[in-house]
Amino acid sequence: MRRVFLSWVTAAVLLLGHLSASGETELGALPLQIINFNFETVQVTWNTTEYSGTNWTFFYKLRDNEDYRECSNYTLRQGSTTGCILAVEKDELLYFSIRHGAGSLLDKTQWISSYLKPRSPRGLTFQWHQGAVTVTCSDLRYKGLLYEIQHKTTFDAEWQSNEAKTCNVTLSDLDAEKCYFFRARVKTLESSYGPDTYPSDWSQVMHQQQGKLRDSCQDKRLSPNFLLITGMIIFLTVSLLFLSLWKLQRIKKVLMPSVPDPKSTFSGLFESHQGNFQEWIKDTQNVTHLNKTEEREQACILEEAVVVQLAEAERPKTMPNSPMGLQMGEEEAAGDPCRLPCQSPQGCQVASLQGFTFVMSDNSYMIL
Questions:
Q1: Alpha helix segments (H runs only) across the chain
Q2: What digits encode the pLDDT tens for the residues 125-140?
Q3: Rounded Cα distance, 125 and 30, in Å
Protein backbone atom coordinates (compact mmCIF):
# COMPACT_ATOMS: atom_id res chain seq x y z
CA MET A 1 0.00 0.00 0.00
CA ARG A 2 2.88 2.35 0.83
CA ARG A 3 4.46 1.68 -2.57
CA VAL A 4 1.19 2.39 -4.41
CA PHE A 5 0.67 5.58 -2.43
CA LEU A 6 4.21 6.75 -3.13
CA SER A 7 3.76 6.02 -6.82
CA TRP A 8 0.68 8.25 -6.93
CA VAL A 9 2.57 10.97 -5.09
CA THR A 10 5.47 10.66 -7.53
CA ALA A 11 3.14 10.98 -10.51
CA ALA A 12 1.54 14.09 -9.04
CA VAL A 13 4.93 15.68 -8.29
CA LEU A 14 6.19 14.93 -11.79
CA LEU A 15 3.08 16.47 -13.31
CA LEU A 16 3.51 19.60 -11.24
CA GLY A 17 7.19 19.77 -12.12
CA HIS A 18 6.39 19.47 -15.81
CA LEU A 19 3.78 22.20 -15.59
CA SER A 20 6.09 24.48 -13.64
CA ALA A 21 8.89 23.87 -16.16
CA SER A 22 6.87 25.04 -19.16
CA GLY A 23 9.01 27.18 -21.39
CA GLU A 24 12.24 25.47 -20.14
CA THR A 25 14.43 23.06 -22.10
CA GLU A 26 13.08 19.51 -22.20
CA LEU A 27 14.89 16.50 -20.73
CA GLY A 28 15.88 15.20 -24.15
CA ALA A 29 18.17 18.22 -24.60
CA LEU A 30 20.29 17.06 -21.62
CA PRO A 31 20.40 13.25 -21.25
CA LEU A 32 20.65 12.07 -17.66
CA GLN A 33 21.82 8.92 -15.90
CA ILE A 34 20.85 8.28 -12.28
CA ILE A 35 22.33 5.37 -10.29
CA ASN A 36 21.43 4.59 -6.68
CA PHE A 37 24.30 2.54 -5.26
CA ASN A 38 22.72 0.30 -2.63
CA PHE A 39 20.85 3.22 -0.95
CA GLU A 40 24.22 4.64 0.10
CA THR A 41 25.07 7.15 -2.63
CA VAL A 42 23.25 8.52 -5.66
CA GLN A 43 25.16 9.61 -8.76
CA VAL A 44 23.45 11.96 -11.22
CA THR A 45 25.36 12.41 -14.52
CA TRP A 46 24.42 14.61 -17.45
CA ASN A 47 25.74 14.64 -21.00
CA THR A 48 27.20 18.02 -21.91
CA THR A 49 28.43 17.17 -25.42
CA GLU A 50 26.17 19.80 -26.99
CA TYR A 51 27.22 22.34 -24.35
CA SER A 52 30.99 21.99 -24.47
CA GLY A 53 32.84 24.26 -22.06
CA THR A 54 29.71 25.15 -20.07
CA ASN A 55 29.69 24.60 -16.31
CA TRP A 56 26.29 23.53 -15.02
CA THR A 57 25.29 23.81 -11.39
CA PHE A 58 23.28 21.12 -9.60
CA PHE A 59 20.78 22.00 -6.85
CA TYR A 60 18.85 19.33 -4.91
CA LYS A 61 16.81 18.51 -1.79
CA LEU A 62 15.52 15.24 -0.30
CA ARG A 63 12.44 16.56 1.43
CA ASP A 64 9.68 18.76 0.15
CA ASN A 65 9.89 21.23 3.03
CA GLU A 66 13.64 21.82 2.62
CA ASP A 67 15.42 24.47 0.59
CA TYR A 68 17.49 23.62 -2.45
CA ARG A 69 21.23 23.40 -1.85
CA GLU A 70 24.08 23.15 -4.34
CA CYS A 71 26.02 19.96 -4.90
CA SER A 72 29.23 19.74 -2.90
CA ASN A 73 30.76 16.77 -4.78
CA TYR A 74 30.85 17.34 -8.54
CA THR A 75 32.33 15.02 -11.17
CA LEU A 76 34.42 16.82 -13.78
CA ARG A 77 35.55 16.18 -17.35
CA GLN A 78 38.06 18.52 -18.99
CA GLY A 79 37.34 21.13 -16.35
CA SER A 80 33.56 21.12 -16.84
CA THR A 81 30.98 19.68 -14.44
CA THR A 82 29.35 16.46 -15.65
CA GLY A 83 27.61 15.10 -12.55
CA CYS A 84 27.00 15.12 -8.81
CA ILE A 85 27.38 12.45 -6.10
CA LEU A 86 24.96 12.61 -3.18
CA ALA A 87 24.91 10.73 0.13
CA VAL A 88 21.57 9.02 1.01
CA GLU A 89 20.38 6.61 3.69
CA LYS A 90 17.06 5.19 2.47
CA ASP A 91 14.51 5.30 -0.32
CA GLU A 92 13.67 8.96 -0.73
CA LEU A 93 12.33 11.44 -3.26
CA LEU A 94 15.08 13.38 -4.95
CA TYR A 95 14.22 16.91 -6.06
CA PHE A 96 16.93 18.41 -8.28
CA SER A 97 17.48 21.25 -10.70
CA ILE A 98 20.28 21.71 -13.27
CA ARG A 99 21.00 25.37 -13.96
CA HIS A 100 23.35 27.69 -15.80
CA GLY A 101 23.45 31.09 -14.18
CA ALA A 102 19.96 32.26 -13.35
CA GLY A 103 18.24 30.08 -15.93
CA SER A 104 17.08 26.52 -15.20
CA LEU A 105 17.74 23.85 -17.83
CA LEU A 106 15.97 20.99 -16.06
CA ASP A 107 13.80 20.48 -12.96
CA LYS A 108 12.96 16.90 -12.00
CA THR A 109 11.75 14.72 -9.11
CA GLN A 110 12.49 10.97 -8.88
CA TRP A 111 12.34 8.13 -6.35
CA ILE A 112 15.93 6.99 -5.95
CA SER A 113 14.77 3.35 -5.64
CA SER A 114 13.78 3.46 -9.32
CA TYR A 115 17.49 3.51 -10.20
CA LEU A 116 18.75 1.02 -7.63
CA LYS A 117 21.98 -0.91 -8.19
CA PRO A 118 22.49 -3.43 -5.34
CA ARG A 119 25.83 -4.24 -3.84
CA SER A 120 27.67 -7.40 -5.00
CA PRO A 121 27.26 -10.50 -2.78
CA ARG A 122 29.98 -11.04 -0.21
CA GLY A 123 31.22 -13.96 1.84
CA LEU A 124 30.15 -16.84 -0.40
CA THR A 125 30.24 -20.24 1.30
CA PHE A 126 29.89 -23.71 -0.26
CA GLN A 127 28.44 -26.87 1.27
CA TRP A 128 28.81 -30.09 -0.80
CA HIS A 129 26.47 -33.04 -0.33
CA GLN A 130 25.78 -36.01 -2.68
CA GLY A 131 26.49 -34.43 -6.03
CA ALA A 132 25.11 -31.02 -5.12
CA VAL A 133 26.38 -27.81 -3.54
CA THR A 134 24.54 -25.11 -1.59
CA VAL A 135 25.89 -21.58 -2.02
CA THR A 136 25.04 -19.08 0.71
CA CYS A 137 25.90 -15.49 1.54
CA SER A 138 24.57 -12.67 3.71
CA ASP A 139 21.30 -11.17 2.44
CA LEU A 140 20.97 -7.47 1.80
CA ARG A 141 18.84 -5.44 4.23
CA TYR A 142 16.07 -4.69 1.72
CA LYS A 143 13.66 -7.00 -0.08
CA GLY A 144 12.44 -7.48 -3.64
CA LEU A 145 15.74 -8.99 -4.83
CA LEU A 146 16.89 -12.05 -6.79
CA TYR A 147 20.21 -13.74 -5.97
CA GLU A 148 21.78 -15.32 -9.07
CA ILE A 149 24.51 -17.97 -8.79
CA GLN A 150 26.39 -19.07 -11.93
CA HIS A 151 28.80 -21.98 -12.37
CA LYS A 152 30.74 -23.78 -15.10
CA THR A 153 33.72 -26.10 -15.62
CA THR A 154 36.75 -25.77 -17.87
CA PHE A 155 34.85 -27.72 -20.54
CA ASP A 156 31.75 -25.48 -20.54
CA ALA A 157 31.51 -22.61 -23.00
CA GLU A 158 28.72 -20.77 -21.14
CA TRP A 159 27.72 -20.18 -17.53
CA GLN A 160 24.73 -21.98 -16.02
CA SER A 161 22.47 -19.90 -13.76
CA ASN A 162 20.29 -20.54 -10.72
CA GLU A 163 18.22 -17.88 -8.93
CA ALA A 164 16.50 -17.55 -5.57
CA LYS A 165 14.91 -14.74 -3.51
CA THR A 166 17.42 -15.35 -0.72
CA CYS A 167 21.14 -15.96 -0.91
CA ASN A 168 20.74 -19.68 -0.33
CA VAL A 169 20.91 -21.43 -3.70
CA THR A 170 21.38 -25.19 -4.22
CA LEU A 171 23.02 -26.45 -7.42
CA SER A 172 22.47 -30.10 -8.31
CA ASP A 173 24.02 -32.63 -10.71
CA LEU A 174 27.60 -31.60 -9.97
CA ASP A 175 30.69 -33.80 -9.91
CA ALA A 176 32.86 -33.02 -6.90
CA GLU A 177 35.93 -34.39 -8.71
CA LYS A 178 35.72 -31.63 -11.32
CA CYS A 179 36.88 -28.08 -10.79
CA TYR A 180 34.10 -25.47 -10.94
CA PHE A 181 33.98 -21.71 -11.35
CA PHE A 182 31.40 -19.88 -9.21
CA ARG A 183 30.22 -16.26 -9.23
CA ALA A 184 27.15 -14.40 -7.90
CA ARG A 185 25.24 -11.16 -8.32
CA VAL A 186 22.01 -9.49 -7.17
CA LYS A 187 19.15 -8.33 -9.39
CA THR A 188 15.96 -6.41 -8.57
CA LEU A 189 12.40 -7.49 -9.22
CA GLU A 190 10.74 -5.24 -11.78
CA SER A 191 7.47 -5.50 -9.90
CA SER A 192 9.10 -3.84 -6.88
CA TYR A 193 11.50 -1.30 -8.38
CA GLY A 194 10.52 -0.76 -12.02
CA PRO A 195 12.41 -1.31 -15.28
CA ASP A 196 15.22 1.25 -14.82
CA THR A 197 17.28 -0.52 -12.15
CA TYR A 198 20.70 -2.12 -12.59
CA PRO A 199 21.99 -5.56 -11.55
CA SER A 200 24.94 -5.58 -9.20
CA ASP A 201 28.46 -6.29 -10.37
CA TRP A 202 29.56 -9.92 -10.37
CA SER A 203 31.35 -11.13 -7.30
CA GLN A 204 34.90 -12.42 -7.50
CA VAL A 205 35.11 -15.76 -9.30
CA MET A 206 35.82 -18.63 -6.90
CA HIS A 207 37.10 -22.13 -7.69
CA GLN A 208 35.92 -25.29 -5.97
CA GLN A 209 37.11 -28.89 -6.35
CA GLN A 210 36.42 -31.82 -4.02
CA GLY A 211 34.79 -29.44 -1.57
CA LYS A 212 37.91 -27.27 -1.28
CA LEU A 213 38.77 -23.79 -2.52
CA ARG A 214 41.36 -23.65 -5.30
CA ASP A 215 43.42 -20.76 -6.56
CA SER A 216 42.54 -21.75 -10.12
CA CYS A 217 41.06 -24.62 -12.09
CA GLN A 218 43.69 -26.85 -13.66
CA ASP A 219 41.35 -29.65 -14.67
CA LYS A 220 42.87 -30.61 -18.01
CA ARG A 221 41.56 -34.14 -18.41
CA LEU A 222 40.90 -34.79 -22.07
CA SER A 223 38.24 -37.06 -23.48
CA PRO A 224 39.26 -40.13 -25.56
CA ASN A 225 37.54 -38.74 -28.65
CA PHE A 226 39.49 -35.52 -28.35
CA LEU A 227 42.77 -37.45 -28.01
CA LEU A 228 41.91 -39.63 -31.03
CA ILE A 229 41.02 -36.67 -33.23
CA THR A 230 44.11 -34.76 -32.12
CA GLY A 231 46.36 -37.76 -32.85
CA MET A 232 44.87 -38.22 -36.32
CA ILE A 233 45.37 -34.54 -37.12
CA ILE A 234 49.00 -34.67 -35.99
CA PHE A 235 49.65 -37.85 -38.00
CA LEU A 236 48.13 -36.41 -41.18
CA THR A 237 50.05 -33.18 -40.75
CA VAL A 238 53.39 -34.98 -40.33
CA SER A 239 52.64 -37.30 -43.30
CA LEU A 240 51.82 -34.36 -45.55
CA LEU A 241 54.98 -32.61 -44.43
CA PHE A 242 57.21 -35.60 -45.28
CA LEU A 243 55.44 -36.08 -48.62
CA SER A 244 55.96 -32.44 -49.48
CA LEU A 245 59.66 -32.64 -48.60
CA TRP A 246 60.10 -35.81 -50.68
CA LYS A 247 58.44 -34.27 -53.73
CA LEU A 248 60.48 -31.12 -53.24
CA GLN A 249 63.73 -33.13 -53.29
CA ARG A 250 62.70 -34.92 -56.49
CA ILE A 251 61.78 -31.65 -58.17
CA LYS A 252 65.06 -30.14 -57.03
CA LYS A 253 67.05 -33.03 -58.53
CA VAL A 254 65.23 -32.66 -61.86
CA LEU A 255 65.58 -28.89 -62.05
CA MET A 256 69.01 -28.61 -60.46
CA PRO A 257 71.04 -31.85 -60.87
CA SER A 258 73.98 -32.28 -58.53
CA VAL A 259 77.43 -31.33 -59.87
CA PRO A 260 80.28 -33.72 -58.90
CA ASP A 261 83.04 -32.26 -56.78
CA PRO A 262 86.26 -32.04 -58.85
CA LYS A 263 88.42 -32.26 -55.72
CA SER A 264 88.06 -36.06 -55.55
CA THR A 265 88.90 -36.53 -59.27
CA PHE A 266 91.64 -33.96 -59.91
CA SER A 267 94.12 -34.28 -57.07
CA GLY A 268 96.06 -31.10 -56.43
CA LEU A 269 93.88 -28.93 -58.66
CA PHE A 270 92.52 -26.91 -55.74
CA GLU A 271 95.16 -27.65 -53.10
CA SER A 272 98.17 -26.48 -55.14
CA HIS A 273 96.74 -24.46 -58.05
CA GLN A 274 93.61 -22.88 -56.48
CA GLY A 275 91.36 -24.31 -59.22
CA ASN A 276 93.48 -23.10 -62.20
CA PHE A 277 92.99 -26.05 -64.55
CA GLN A 278 95.57 -24.90 -67.17
CA GLU A 279 98.36 -24.62 -64.62
CA TRP A 280 97.37 -27.96 -63.14
CA ILE A 281 97.39 -29.81 -66.52
CA LYS A 282 100.74 -28.30 -67.47
CA ASP A 283 102.25 -29.44 -64.21
CA THR A 284 100.75 -32.91 -64.63
CA GLN A 285 102.06 -33.31 -68.25
CA ASN A 286 105.57 -32.23 -67.26
CA VAL A 287 105.73 -34.76 -64.46
CA THR A 288 104.57 -37.56 -66.77
CA HIS A 289 107.08 -36.66 -69.50
CA LEU A 290 109.93 -36.55 -67.04
CA ASN A 291 109.05 -39.96 -65.66
CA LYS A 292 109.00 -41.55 -69.13
CA THR A 293 112.31 -39.95 -70.03
CA GLU A 294 113.99 -41.24 -66.89
CA GLU A 295 112.74 -44.79 -67.53
CA ARG A 296 114.02 -44.68 -71.13
CA GLU A 297 117.44 -43.39 -70.04
CA GLN A 298 117.76 -46.14 -67.42
CA ALA A 299 116.86 -48.83 -69.98
CA CYS A 300 119.39 -47.46 -72.48
CA ILE A 301 122.18 -47.29 -69.91
CA LEU A 302 121.53 -50.88 -68.79
CA GLU A 303 121.44 -52.28 -72.30
CA GLU A 304 124.49 -50.30 -73.32
CA ALA A 305 126.42 -51.76 -70.41
CA VAL A 306 125.37 -55.29 -71.29
CA VAL A 307 126.33 -54.89 -74.95
CA VAL A 308 129.70 -53.45 -74.07
CA GLN A 309 130.50 -56.32 -71.74
CA LEU A 310 129.44 -58.92 -74.29
CA ALA A 311 131.41 -57.21 -76.99
CA GLU A 312 134.56 -57.16 -74.90
CA ALA A 313 134.15 -60.80 -73.96
CA GLU A 314 133.61 -62.11 -77.51
CA ARG A 315 135.72 -59.68 -79.52
CA PRO A 316 138.79 -61.44 -81.00
CA LYS A 317 142.20 -59.95 -80.57
CA THR A 318 142.64 -58.26 -83.92
CA MET A 319 144.05 -55.03 -84.92
CA PRO A 320 141.74 -52.19 -84.91
CA ASN A 321 142.74 -51.06 -88.37
CA SER A 322 142.53 -54.48 -89.95
CA PRO A 323 139.69 -55.37 -92.24
CA MET A 324 138.51 -57.88 -89.72
CA GLY A 325 138.30 -55.20 -87.05
CA LEU A 326 136.43 -52.78 -89.25
CA GLN A 327 133.96 -55.44 -90.20
CA MET A 328 133.30 -56.37 -86.62
CA GLY A 329 132.87 -52.72 -85.71
CA GLU A 330 130.31 -52.31 -88.44
CA GLU A 331 128.51 -55.43 -87.30
CA GLU A 332 128.44 -54.19 -83.76
CA ALA A 333 127.16 -50.86 -84.89
CA ALA A 334 124.57 -52.50 -87.10
CA GLY A 335 123.52 -54.95 -84.43
CA ASP A 336 123.62 -52.59 -81.41
CA PRO A 337 120.62 -53.63 -79.34
CA CYS A 338 120.47 -50.31 -77.44
CA ARG A 339 119.35 -48.25 -80.35
CA LEU A 340 116.15 -50.13 -80.87
CA PRO A 341 115.14 -50.17 -77.21
CA CYS A 342 115.85 -46.46 -76.93
CA GLN A 343 113.44 -45.85 -79.74
CA SER A 344 110.96 -48.32 -78.35
CA PRO A 345 111.46 -48.87 -74.58
CA GLN A 346 108.82 -51.54 -74.54
CA GLY A 347 111.03 -53.96 -76.55
CA CYS A 348 113.87 -54.25 -74.00
CA GLN A 349 113.44 -56.34 -70.87
CA VAL A 350 115.88 -57.45 -68.18
CA ALA A 351 115.43 -60.68 -66.15
CA SER A 352 117.54 -62.60 -63.56
CA LEU A 353 117.52 -66.34 -63.00
CA GLN A 354 119.92 -68.30 -60.72
CA GLY A 355 122.62 -65.68 -60.87
CA PHE A 356 122.33 -65.01 -64.63
CA THR A 357 121.01 -61.78 -66.08
CA PHE A 358 119.18 -61.85 -69.42
CA VAL A 359 118.64 -58.86 -71.67
CA MET A 360 115.82 -59.50 -74.12
CA SER A 361 114.77 -57.57 -77.20
CA ASP A 362 112.07 -58.24 -79.79
CA ASN A 363 114.06 -60.91 -81.73
CA SER A 364 116.99 -61.89 -79.50
CA TYR A 365 118.30 -62.12 -75.97
CA MET A 366 121.75 -61.93 -74.40
CA ILE A 367 123.29 -63.29 -71.17
CA LEU A 368 125.10 -60.84 -68.97
A1: 2-20, 190-193, 224-255, 277-314, 323-334, 339-343
A2: 999 988 899 999 999 9
A3: 45
